[in-house]
C-alpha cells in the first residue's frame, strides 16, 4: 500500500466504527461495496468531494474525543493531512467537531470559516448547511516561482542507497535549487549558494553538505553530486572533483516530499529557505541510485552524447528536448511543468526557470454556504437531530480565544483560561440546549451536573438519553 502515499496522505488502513448508506460500507473515508471490495485504494484529492460515496466520516475515527485541531468530522469523501492540508476539506465540504445529518441538511458545531487555515486561536459556531456539495475549482499548484514537479514513486526511493545527481546548468544569479527531493527529515538537493555548487543530504533530520569553491554563474557548467557507497559526499564541476566530506550514512527513509527541479517547494533540504528558486537554464537532468565513479562523471561531461540512457541504476532522465518533462530512463517518472518554459539548451532543448524569493501558499476558496449560523456559549460534545429539533450538550465556553491569544499574559485572561480548563474537565457542569432546525434559535436550556460522554446522546420513543462522565445515563421526556 506504500505506493499509494501522496505527500503526507495515505490510503486508509486503520479500522473504525463502520457506517453505510445502503450502497457502500465506509471505514473512515474508505468505501467498500456490500461484498467487502475496496472501491478505491489511492488517496482522493481533497478538492474532489463531490460524486458517489459522499458520507459522514472522521479521519481520526468516530471515537476520537481529543479534539486535535488538525482533525474534524467531514460530510464528503476526502481529508488532507499536514500543516498545509488539514484545513482544506473544511473549505470545500461541511465540516465540524460534530455533525448531524437531516434529509437535506447538515447540522454542525465547528470552527468559523475564517479559521479553516493555519491558526492558533479558533472560535466556533453552530450552523446548518445543505448536503449538496459545492463544486470548487482546483487552484493551480502553489509554487514559489517555477519548477518541474515529479511525483513520488517506488523507483525514486533513495533510502539506503548510494546516489548521483547530474545536470547541466546556466544560472543567471548565484542562488537557487537545481534539484531537490525531500525536506528537513530526509532527502537530497543539488543547488547553488552565493554562486557556488552545493550538494546536501538529510539523514534523520541531520544535514550534511559539501560545496565547491568556484563560482559558476553565467555560463554552462556540468554539476554532479554523489553519495558514495563509503558514505562520502562529493560535488563535481565540469567533470572534476570540487569538494568532498563525510556523511553520517545513507538517506534513512523514503522522503515524504516529492521532487522538484528548479526550486524546493517543500521544507528545505539544504541550507536555504524554500522555495529558493533558480533563475536560469537547466538541461540533461539525471538521477542514479548508484555512485558514479570520477571517470564516469568526467565522461558524462566530456562526451554527453555517449551517456547511456539505459543504465539500470538510472532512475530519472530529462533531456527536455521535446519541450516537456518526459522521463527517458524507462521508469515513467514524468514531470509536470509549473511556470518552467522550454528554451534552447546546452544540448537540444532545456528548461528556463524564473527564480523566486517568496512562496505563495496554496489556498482553496471557502465555498460552504450556511443557511444559518449561531454563536453559542458551550463546547458541543454531544449532538442529536430529532425531527425539527437539534439537541446539543457540553461544558460552558467562557474564553474568547482571539482575545486570549493577544493578551496571554494578562491576569484576567489567565483566570479565564483556568476557568475554561476546569469547565472542560467537568467541574462547571454542562449545558443542554434544544435548538430549532429552521433558524437556529434556542427553544430551551437546561443545566446538567456533569458533562456528556463524547457523542453520548441518543433518542427513541419520544425520549432523549444522555450518558455523562459521572457514570450516569439520563433520560428526558417532554410534557
Overview features:
seven-stranded antiparallel sheet, 4 helices, 38% strand, mainly beta
Summarize the structure.
With 479 residues, the protein is mostly beta strands. Helices cover 7% and strands 38% of the residues. It is built from 4 helices and 32 strands.
Detailed description of the structure:
With 479 residues, the chain is mostly beta strands. 7% of the residues lie in helices and 38% in strands. The chain contains four helices and 32 strands. It has helices at 89-92, 294-302, 401-406, 411-424; strands spanning 19-20, 24-27, 30-33, 55-57, 73-76, 95-96, 98-101, 105-111, 124-130, 147-150, 163-171, 176-182, 187-193, 196-203, 206-211, 221-227, 232-237, 240-246, 259-261, 277-288, 314-318, 336-338, 341-344, 349-356, 370-374, 382-386, 389-394, 430-436, 442-448, 452-460, 463-468, 473-477. Strands 11, 16, 17, 18, 20, 21, 23 and 24 form an eight-stranded antiparallel beta sheet that branches. β16 (221-227) and β17 (232-237) form a beta hairpin. It is elongated, with a radius of gyration of 28 Å.
Amino acid at each position: 500500500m506504500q505506493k499509494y502515499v501522496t505527500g503526507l496522505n495515505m490510503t486508509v488502513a486503520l479500522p473504525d466504527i463502520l457506517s453505510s448508506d445502503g450502497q457502500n460500507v465506509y471505514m473512515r473515508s474508505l468505501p467498500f461495496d456490500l461484498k467487502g471490495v475496496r472501491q478505491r485504494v489511492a488517496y482522493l484529492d481533497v478538492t474532489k468531494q463531490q460524486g458517489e460515496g459522499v458520507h459522514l466520516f472522521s479521519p481520526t475515527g468516530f471515537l476520537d474525543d481529543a479534539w486535535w485541531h488538525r482533525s474534524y468530522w467531514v460530510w464528503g469523501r476526502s481529508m488532507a493531512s499536514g500543516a498545509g492540508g488539514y484545513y482544506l476539506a473544511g473549505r470545500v465540504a461541511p465540516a465540524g467537531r460534530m455533525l448531524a445529518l437531516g434529509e437535506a441538511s447538515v447540522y454542525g458545531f465547528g470552527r468559523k470559516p475564517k479559521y479553516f487555515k493555519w491558526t492558533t486561536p479558533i472560535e466556533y459556531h453552530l450552523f446548518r448547511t445543505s448536503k449538496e456539495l459545492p463544486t470548487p475549482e482546483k487552484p493551480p499548484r502553489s509554487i514559489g516561482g517555477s519548477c518541474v514537479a515529479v511525483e513520488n514513486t517506488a523507483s525514486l526511493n533513495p533510502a539506503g542507497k548510494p546516489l548521483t545527481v547530474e545536470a547541466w546548468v546556466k544560472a543567471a544569479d548565484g542562488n537557487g535549487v537545481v534539484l531537490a527531493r525531500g525536506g528537513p527529515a530526509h532527502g537530497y538537493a543539488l543547488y547553488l549558494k552565493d554562486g557556488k555548487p552545493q550538494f546536501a543530504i538529510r539523514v534523520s533530520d541531520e544535514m550534511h553538505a559539501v560545496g565547491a569553491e568556484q563560482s559558476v554563474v553565467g555560463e554552462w557548467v556540468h554539476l554532479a553530486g554523489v553519495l558514495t557507497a563509503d558514505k562520502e559526499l562529493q560535488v563535481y564541476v565540469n567533470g572534476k572533483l570540487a569538494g568532498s566530506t563525510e556523511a553520517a550514512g545513507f538517506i534513512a527513509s523514503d522522503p515524504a516530499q516529492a521532487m522538484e527541479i528548479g526550486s524546493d517547494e517543500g521544507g528545505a533540504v539544504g541550507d536555504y529557505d524554500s522555495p529558493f528558486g533558480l533563475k536560469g537554464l537547466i538541461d540533461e537532468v539525471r538521477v542514479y541510485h548508484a555512485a558514479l565513479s570520477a571517470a564516469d562523471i568526467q565522461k558524462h561531461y566530456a562526451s554527453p552524447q555517449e551517456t547511456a540512457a539505459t543504465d539500470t541504476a538510472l532512475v530519472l532522465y530529462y533531456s527536455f528536448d521535446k519541450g516537456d518533462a518526459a522521463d527517458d530512463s524507462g521508469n515513467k517518472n514524468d514531470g509536470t511543468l509549473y511556470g518552467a518554459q522550454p528554451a534552447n539548451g546546452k544540448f537540444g532543448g532545456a528548461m528556463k526557470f524564473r527564480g523566486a524569493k517568496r512562496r505563495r501558499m496554496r489556498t482553496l476558496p471557502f465555498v460552504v454556504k450556511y443557511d444559518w449560523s449561531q454563536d453559542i456559549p458551550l463546547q458541543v460534545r454531544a449532538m442529536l437531530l430529532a425531527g425539527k429539533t437539534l439537541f446539543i450538550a457540553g461544558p460552558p465556553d467562557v474564553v474568547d480565544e482571539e482575545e486570549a491569544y493577544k493578551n496571554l499574559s494578562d491576569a484576567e485572561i489567565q483566570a479565564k483560561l483556568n476557568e475554561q480548563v476546569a469547565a472542560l474537565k467537568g467541574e462547571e457542569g454542562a449545558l443542554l440546549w434544544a435548538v430549532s432546525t429552521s433558524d437556529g434559535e434556542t427553544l430551551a436550556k437546561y443545566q446538567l451536573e456533569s458533562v456528556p460522554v463524547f457523542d453520548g446522546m441518543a433518542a427513541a420513543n419520544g425520549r432523549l438519553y444522555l450518558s455523562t462522565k459521572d457514570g450516569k445515563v439520563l433520560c428526558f421526556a417532554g410534557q
